[in-house]
Design a protein that fits this description.
about 950 residues, about 20% strand, non-specific serine/threonine protein kinase, 16 helices, signal, about 25% helix, 51 strands, alpha/beta, ATP binding, 6-stranded mixed beta sheet, Alpha-Beta Plaits, Transferase(Phosphotransferase), domain 1, disordered C terminus
């Protein structure tokens, strides 16, 4: 019965397809429906096989459409309800196509596999369909910069894994929905990190139920709405918050005292409300960079001295807040202060700035106060001081500070040319920073809560340009250079920058290039430097596609019809052959599915790889999936190599960046270590340990897939390769976080794990410089039968310089072996010296120089100058003592990792740092800007499983 059944199916499909198509029938029909509703399509949208012929913006796995990314290509029309037929669709991005109008069809709620719905900067109207709440796999929901009206659907609260919720800049009304009984609400979104609701017409109270201790929110953006009532006290429960914007609403009442508990907040906006009561005390917000409480009705108060304790404050904006009295000179010596705006208050007496002000201070605006004296013996030419409207600026006074020189909110900047001779470009072409004439892709970057206010600082824009280029290159985008220009602060306090992106080695971008770059910016793949905070990109339609002229799409469609008609004549002759291919394919799919259900079905325990691995997590990927993630293992994605094999950068379907470690083809070397690492990583789950995403054991391949860590190794930062300048407070925190990771392995993992290769090359720093312990290829578990023993007898493996001498001599491995290695890392943090350099061993060097009777124990000549310049008194000495305890010759004399962690916590207390602040701002812990960090996986030590000294 097999042949007749499938022959009849093919005959039934023949009139519909016209040709034999490889793309799934329903998917093809859905795409044809979309085509019929859209104009200005990519010219290669033709024929009956979108997956096989590679339609621009369409990504498939086998015959199923998994993503549609069509950003900035000037699409127009409406989104057809037939979109629901794309049942395997995971990503839909139509951003920056203003011509896409009409309502978002409710049928979109039937896309059960959708993870990203992104339509930034389109022209959608009507209400947001409640059916969106049925998208249980949704991670990114960006509907901002449209014309949506009505209320926020309460059903969005049903989406369990939603990470990003951006509804800003629409015309939404009503209140924020909260769950009641069986009715869902946004308070159920405990996994969501971003609530971006600014620029709407939302009203009513901010519901207290929205905030709980379970909420993991980082950004709360409610600015420029019509919210009334008081700020709920429950907001103080969300300790993960980093950015709060409540400004430009109608909020009243006193600011809750417990907001002071939010020690991770970096940017705080509450200006332009009707707040009353005492000025809030923000003493414990020790990560605070930018605070604006202007234009509220707070009780009159003397200038709060606690402002001078906010060591990372860049911007103090307190216009019209009833502050009185003299300003303390200590305010102007805050090391990162850039802007002080205290207009329309009651500040009086003498303005004393002092000679020890920091060189970042650029603006002191004290207009319309009561200042009657200002000593000018010091040189204040580098800072603009405005005292217009004070008694000191009586009529006839012509001092510079009695005039307003310019509007600092509109500082100019344009990316400079890179030591090249600018060309005379033809019409419409623009010279790039590398002096190449081209047609760039352009748009506007809008930063909704930057943590700085000196918009004339060129270095901060240079860091943004650098970060953009690093991101484009890491994702293999065809970008030559970027240009930023025209920074401006708009009426809502957003920083806007014009962005131009230039194509690599050609005049134009092609369709795929624009779609991929647009998707990178719309789905937040690009992470700007921390100073810039949350952003949105609004791309312009690209008009200059290579080789595209008006009418080309029509010609290609006509050709498609001709080709289809010609091929149709052969279909009947090929039916039997197709049926046979279909049967073979079905058998192959069934076999592949069976293999996927048992990823270790071909594991050979007779080799030196040991028995079948026992895993407790981690996804099994097929070889074909890995090929797709790495663009067929392209050399441009290769980011490292070693004795074990190569490491590739990969991008999963959901946009997650991963590192893929691939063993050498046909080699059995490292099979046991491969098994060891996937077993161990599948068991460990700690934020200071690199996480396993998955693995591949398919077609003779051994590959590990783990999280991609952006800022490289600790070693690279200490040696200056990344350009990240780690100050003493950040080094302490890195030591603490690394210690916590190792302590977890020793005492909380089940079974306990001895890492056996703790070193600065195996400590990675993420985008917030949090430390993560990596590389478990040499690690040893303590079997249940040996957990009562004090050691594990094993061959010596590790890295010279970090290797425990007792373990080296006795071959008896204990947790104290990791403690010794950790002690060496502590000495590296102090000195930035490699463990062994030209015969000098850092442990011996420190011990020989040590003299506790002298300042800094006589170690200043070998300390890193960064440590010596900004350490808290007593903290370095305590750190040295702990490090030397860790590197005692006898393991029994060394502390446990639990004791080490507690010791570092006490040292941080001595240094005035909060060891429990585990989401600390990067700005409070390191100085400088990355020069373009060396890829963290381009280091052989992360790849090699060898136990030789070369590791």
């Amino acid at each position: 019965m097999f042949w007749p059944i499938h022959l009849s199916c093919l005959l039934a499909l023949l009139p519909l397809l016209g040709v034999v198509a490889l793309t799934n029938t329903n998917d093809f029909v859905a795409l044809k429906a979309l085509m019929s509703n859209w104009d200005n399509l990519p010219p290669n949208w033709d024929g009956a096989d979108p997956c096989g012929s590679g339609w621009d913006g369409i990504t498939c796995t086998n015959d199923r459409v998994e993503s549609i990314t069509l950003a900035s290509i000037n699409l127009s029309g409406q989104l057809a309800s037939d979109i629901e037929k794309l049942s395997e669709l995971q990503i839909l991005d139509l951003s920056y196509n203003k011509g896409i109008t009409g309502e978002l069809p409710s049928s979109i709620g039937n896309l059960n596999n959708l993870t990203s719905l992104i339509v930034v900067g389109c022209g959608f109207t009507g209400q947001i369909p409640p059916s969106i709440g049925s998208l249980q796999k949704l991670v990114y929901l960006s509907l901002n910069l449209n014309n949506f009206i009505g209320e926020i659907p309460a059903s969005i609260g049903n989406i369990p894994n939603l990470f990003w919720l951006d509804l800003a800049d629409n015309r939404l009304t009503g209140s924020i929905p909260i769950s009641k009984g069986s009715t869902p609400g946004l308070n159920m979104l405990v996994a969501t990190k971003h609530f971006h609701f600014g620029g709407n017409l939302l009203s009513g109270d901010i519901p207290p139920q929205l905030f709980t201790t379970e909420l993991t929110l980082k950004h709360l953006l409610l600015e420029n709405n019509q919210f009334t009532g008081e700020i709920p006290t429950t907001l103080g429960l969300v300790r993960t918050l980093e950015v709060i914007r409540l400004d430009r609403n109608l909020l009243s009442g006193a600011v809750p005292d417990n907001l002071n508990n939010l020690s991770s907040v970096q940017t705080l906006h509450m200006e332009n409300n009707k707040l009353t009561g005492p000025l809030p005390n923000l003493t414990s917000m020790d990560s605070l960079n930018y605070v604006d409480l202007s234009n509220n009705s707070f009780e009159a108060t003397d200038f709060p001295l606690w402002f001078t304790s906010l060591q990372f404050l860049t911007s103090l904006i307190m216009e019209n807040t009833h502050i009185r009295g003299e300003l303390p000179v200590s305010l102007f010596s805050l090391s990162q202060l850039q802007t002080v705006v205290l207009r329309k208050n009651q500040i009086n007496g003498t303005l004393t700035i002092g000679s020890d002000r920091n060189n970042q201070l650029k603006l002191i605006d004290l207009q319309n106060n009561f200042i009657d004296a200002f000593p000018t013996s010091d040189d204040y030419s580098s800072v603009e001081i405005i005292l217009v409207g004070n008694p000191i600026c009586e009529e006839g006074i012509t001092e510079d500070y009695c005039t307003i020189s310019h509007d600092r909110s509109n500082d100019t900047y344009t990316s400079p040319k890179q030591n090249c001779t600018p060309l005379q470009c033809s019409k419409d072409q623009i010279p790039s920073p590398t002096c190449q004439c081209a047609y760039p892709y352009s748009g506007t970057l809008t930063f909704r809560a930057p943590s700085f206010s000196n918009y004339g600082n060129k270095s901060v824009y240079e860091s943004l340009e650098q970060a953009l280029m690093i991101s484009f290159k890491s994702h293999n985008q065809p970008v030559d250079s970027v240009s930023l220009s025209s920074p401006v602060k708009d009426s809502v306090g957003y920083l806007k920058l014009d962005l131009e992106i230039f194509p690599y080695s050609q005049l134009y971008f092609n369709w795929t290039g624009i779609e991929r770059i647009g998707f990178m910016l719309s789905n937040q793949t690009f992470k700007p430097p921390h100073e810039f905070g949350p952003f949105v990109f609004h791309g312009n339609a690209y008009q200059y596609f290579a080789g595209y002229t008006a009418g080309s799409r029509k010609s290609s469609i006509s050709m498609g019809v001709i080709i289809g008609a010609a091929l149709g004549a052969f279909v009947l002759l090929l039916l039997l052959l197709v049926a046979g291919v279909y049967a073979f394919r079905q058998k192959k799919i069934a076999k592949s599915a069976s293999k996927r259900s048992d990823p270790f079905g071909s594991w050979d325990p007779n080799t030196d790889s040991g028995g079948v691995p026992q895993l407790k997590g981690g996804r099994s990927f097929t070889f074909e999936e890995i090929k797709k993630f790495t663009n067929n293992f392209s050399t441009s994605n290769e980011i490292g190599s070693g004795g074990y094999g190569k490491v590739y950068r990969g991008t999963l379907v959901n946009g997650q960046l991963v590192a893929i470690k691939r063993a050498q083809q046909g080699s059995t070397q490292g099979a046991l270590e491969f098994k060891t690492e996937i077993e161990l990583l599948s068991r460990v789950h700690h934020k200071n340990v690199v996480a396993l995403v998955g693995f591949c054991f398919d077609k003779g391949e051994q590959m590990l897939v783990y999280e991609y860590i952006t800022n490289g190794t600790l070693k690279d930062s200490l040696t200056g390769k990344t350009g990240i300048r780690l100050d003493w407070s950040r080094r302490l925190r890195i030591a603490l976080e690394t210690g916590r990771g190792v302590h977890y392995l020793h005492e909380q993992a089940n079974p306990p794990i001895i890492h056996r290769d703790i070193k600065s090359n195996n400590i990675l720093l993420d985008d917030r410089l949090n430390a993560k312990v990596a590389d478990f290829g040499l690690s040893k578990c303590k079997p249940m039968s040996e957990q009562d023993k004090s050691h594990v007898t094993t061959n010596v493996k590790g890295t010279m310089g970090y290797l425990d001498p007792e373990y080296y001599m006795t071959q008896q491995l204990t947790e104290k072996s990791d403690v010794y290695s950790f002690g060496v890392v502590m000495l590296e943090l102090l000195t930035s010296m490699a463990p062994i350099v030209k015969g000098k061993y850092v442990v011996r060097e420190v011990k020989e120089a040590l003299d506790k009777s002298k300042n800094l124990y006589n170690l200043e000549p070998i300390l890193d100058p960064i440590v010596a310049s900004n350490m808290a008194p007593g903290s370095v000495e305590k750190f040295v003592e702990m490090a030397l305890r860790c590197v005692e010759e006898s393991g029994s004399s060394r502390p446990s990792m639990s004791e080490v962690v507690k010791g570092i916590e006490k040292i941080m207390d001595v240094a005035g740092l909060n060891p429990s602040n585990e989401s600390a701002s990067t700005s409070e812990n390191y100085e400088g800007t990355s020069k373009g960090s060396k890829d963290p996986y381009a280091n052989e030590s992360l790849l090699s499983y060898s136990g030789s000294e070369s590791k």
